[in-house]
Structures are given as C-alpha cells and as structure tokens.
Amino acid sequence: MTEAEQIAAVAERFFGAVEAGDTGTVEACYDPAVVIWHGHTRQAQDRAANVATLTQFIALTRERRYTDRKIHVFDGGFVQQHLLVAIANGGARLELPAALICAVTGDRITRLEEYFDNSAVIEWAKAPDFA
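The structure assignment produced for this chain is given below.
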C-alpha cells in the first residue's frame, strides 16, 4: 500500500467510524498525542476530550452522514471538504459545510484542524424538534 493509499484509508476509517457512532475506532484513528484544533473556538483538544465531544454528539443524533466529500491526499496528510448531515434524536436536521486538514503518520491522525460556521450548530440545537 502506498503512503497516499494508507492516508486515504485512515480518512475513510475515521469518517466511517463517526457515521457509525463507533468512538472506539475514532480513538484508534488518533495518535495518543493528537491535537484537534477547532476554528470556531480557536481552541485545541487532546484525544480524550475530543472523543468525549464526539460521544456527546453521537448520543444526541440518530444519524450522521458525510456527503459531498472532496478529499485531497498530500504527503503526510489530507484535506477533506464535506457536508455533515446529522439528524437529532428529535428529528431536527443539521447541514454543516466543513473542512478538515489532517496530518497523518502511519495509520494515525496526529493533528486535525476543523473549520465550520458554528452558527448552524447553535440554531440546530435550538430547534423545537432537536431532543
């Protein structure tokens, strides 16, 4: 397997795990020293904090899909642009355009930078059919 194929496989495994609600696989995709940086907060999280955040997101949703995926693999990582479509347990629908830049070493993500407009998430959480 080439480095590009290995990086693409990491991306597929990571996003597939989020869609499936499999936080164990998400955690396994991360290097133990991974840094996850969020553009909307300008704050970084470590692996445990991010897995906890994703666990909460998964608990609030009955469906998560990454659509309109555009991935570009480069030496040492990948960029993915996508539309995250999530359905809250109460039925409210989130459509969140986002982009992620990931550094990958071997079969693990060592840094993830996520960019999206958080106002869509805030409005989604206020929807009467959210919970």
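Interim note for the steering committee: The two ends are 44 Å apart (CA to CA). The longest strand covers residues 61-74.
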